[in-house]
Write a structure and sequence with these properties.
alpha/beta; Dihydrofolate Reductase, subunit A; two-stranded antiparallel sheet
Length: about 190
């Protein structure tokens, strides 16, 4: 069975997207005001290098697809992002232009994809998708890079749910010089 790993930039008050602005990088710009240091950069690089595919919601996909194909870097992060398989949950996307993209029409299709594989599917951003996956018990691990700020509004990672989820903290580390903390939880 494939593992679904959610990786999020998140604020102390649970925000993942600031109010206003456009979806994608603009609305998470608050995260780039803090130093996550070389160890935080290495964490994100290792995470992407280990992943077999990306699983994204439509808004995050659109933001990523507009940026990543033009990015060049020495570490190989962009090369991996652009070459790996990508699955996007959307009922309206047709003819995706970002290389290696497959459109999935429902969370049921994601559940079937998870059951049929043995790889790691990495979810970045995609708050609505993450909440739907969590509601269905499809998330195996949460990697939360917590930034020392409070947005006071905007989209939250977790909302109301019909089922409680129990998590086990398996790793924590402070990265950078600004008090950014990476928390890794396994779903039980």
């Amino acid at each position: 069975m494939s593992r679904i790993v959610v990786s999020e930039f998140i604020t102390v008050d649970g925000g993942i997207d600031s109010p206003g602005g456009e979806p994608g990088f603009d609305r998470a710009g608050w995260a780039f005001q803090f130093s996550r240091g070389p160890e935080g950069d290495k964490f994100k690089l290792d995470e992407v290098q280990k992943a077999d595919a990306l699983l994204l919601g439509r808004k995050t996909y659109d933001g990523f697809a507009a940026v990543w194909p033009t990015v060049k870097d020495e570490a190989g992060f962009a090369e991996k992002m652009n070459s790996m398989p990508k699955y996007v949950l959307s009922s309206t996307l047709t003819g995706p232009t970002w290389a290696n993209t497959t459109v999935l029409g429902s969370v049921d299709e994601i559940a079937k994809l998870r059951e049929s594989g043995d790889d790691e599917l990495l979810v970045n951003g995609s708050g609505q998708l993450v909440r739907a996956l969590g509601e269905r018990g499809l998330v195996d691990e949460y990697r939360l890079m917590v930034f020392p700020t409070v947005l006071g509004g905007g989209e939250k990672l977790f909302g109301e749910t019909s089922t409680a989820a129990k998590l086990k903290l398996v790793d924590s580390q402070v990265v950078g010089t600004d008090g950014v903390i990476v928390l890794t939880y396994q779903a039980l």
